[in-house]
Hints:
Radius of gyration: 42 Å
CATH topology of the largest domain: Heat Shock Protein 90
Largest sheet: 5 strands, antiparallel
Strand content: 25-35%
Oligomer: single chain
Shape: rod-shaped
CATH architecture of the largest domain: 2-Layer Sandwich
Strand order of the largest sheet: 4-3-7-6-5
CATH class of the largest domain: Alpha Beta
Number of strands: 19
CATH superfamily of the largest domain: Histidine kinase-like ATPase, C-terminal domain
Number of domains: 3
Number of helices: 14
Amino acid sequence: MAKCFPIFGKENETVVYNPDELIDLFLNCTADGICIVDMENRFIRINQMYTRIFGYTEEDVLGRRFDEFPMSELVIEIVKAVKQGKTFHNINTQRCHKDGTILDIAVSYSPFRNSQGEIIAIFALYRDITERVNMERELKKTRELYRLITENTADMIKLYSYDKKIIYASPSHEKGIGYTPEQLFGKTVYDLILPEDKEHFDSAYQKLIETGEPQLFQTKIRTESNEVIVSETTMSPIYNETNEIESFVTVGRNITDRVKNDDALRNLDRLSIIGQLAAGVAHEIRNPLTSLKGFSKLLKGTTDKEKQEDYLSIITNELDRIDMIVNEFMSLAKPQAIQFEVESLNTILESTVKILHPQALLHNVQIINHYHTDEIDLLCSPHQLKQVFVNVLKNAIESMQHGGTVHIDVQKIEGKRVLISFSDEGIGIDTELMDFLGTPFYTTKDKGIGLGLTVSNKIIQEHNGTMKIESQLGKGTIVKVELKYI
C-alpha cells in the first residue's frame, strides 16, 4: 500500500496526499521547466513551466524522441554521458521555442534512478535566462561603445574619486598633454592645473557638490613637456546606490587656439575703436594745445610775476588735461593680459566716459550718469569691461546724428547682481535686424567691422553676466548689462 503524507492546510485542516499527487504538485509548482526522458530518449513527462518556456504541450512531445526536435550535437553527447551516471549543472545553451524564437536557457541534467539505484530515465531542469542574457549583451555592447568612445575621442576624459584622485584617464591624454593613462593614475587634479586656478576649480567643485549639476569651467593645465594649455572642462557627478555623489567625471578639451583667436578678435575690435576715436582725441587735445601756445607767448612777453604765475597755472592745468586724455586713451589701446581683480564699477564707468568725452563733443552728445550709489565692487577684468562699455557708448553716440543724450543707470538687483543700463535717443534698430545682432562681421554701420557686439557678448559671458538689447525704430535703444558683484 502506498504511503500517504499528511500536510496541514488552513486552520489546522489536514490534507492527505499520496506520492503521485505530491510529484504532480512539485512539477507544476516549480519555477523551472522540467522534463523526464526514458532510456530510449522518449519524453515521458513535462511540467507546465516547460510548456510555458518552450511552447510545447504534453500532446506535442509525450511519446516522441527528444532528438526529433531541434537539438545540438552537444546535448546528444550529454544525454549519453548522463545515462552513464554523470551529472551536469547550469549549462548555458540556446534552444528553440515552438514558434522558432531562439531562447537562452540554463539547463541541468541528472540521472533518474529507481529504488535499486538503477538509471531508468534522464531528468532535465530548464531555466529561461533570455532576459538576463540580453541585458548582459546590451551591457557588454554599452561598455564596448564607451570603451571605443573613450579610446578614440580627442576629448580628455577622466574619472575622479571623491577625494579628487584620478582612477581612470582616457588614452587621448597622451596626445593632449603628453601623459599616458598609467602616469595619470593616482594623481590629484591639483597635480595638473596651475596653482592660480586652484581656487577657480574648488569653486566649481563646491557648486557641483551643492547643486548636483554639471559645471563648465576653464583651467590652465601644464603638460608633460612643461607647456601650458587652456582646457574647457565639463565636470559631472556620479551617484552611488544611496543617491550620494561618490565620484565625478570630467571631459576636457584643449581650447588654447580658440582662446588665442578670441584674443585676436578683441584686439581687432579694440584697434577699430581706437582708430575711430583718434579723431575725437586729437580734437580734444588740440584745444588745450591752442591754450598752451597762446599762454606760452604771453608768458614769454611779460615780466609781471603775478601774470606769469597765472599763465603757468593755466598751462599746468591744460597739460594735466592732455595727460589725463592720453592716459585713458592709452589704457584702452595697450594690450592687457586677462586677469580678474577687484575693481569699482563706478571707476570703470567714469574712466570709460572720459575716453568717450571727445567723441561725444564732436557729435553734440551729452552723457549723463545715474550711478551715484554705494560703491559696487566687481571681480573682473577692468580693461575688458571698459572695452564693452566703450563699444556700447560709442554705438549710442553714433546713433544720434543730430546730437542727444545718453543715460547710464546703475541699480542693484536680487542675487547680488547689478544692472547697468545704457539708453540713447538714437534712430533705433529695425525689429527684423535684431536677430542678427552679435553675429561676427555683421554690422549696420558703413564703417563698422561687425565685431563689437560679438566680442562684448563673449566678455560679458566670461564674467558670468548677460547682455540684452531692446530697441524700437525711431525711439532709441537700451542696452542692459547684468553682472555679479562682491
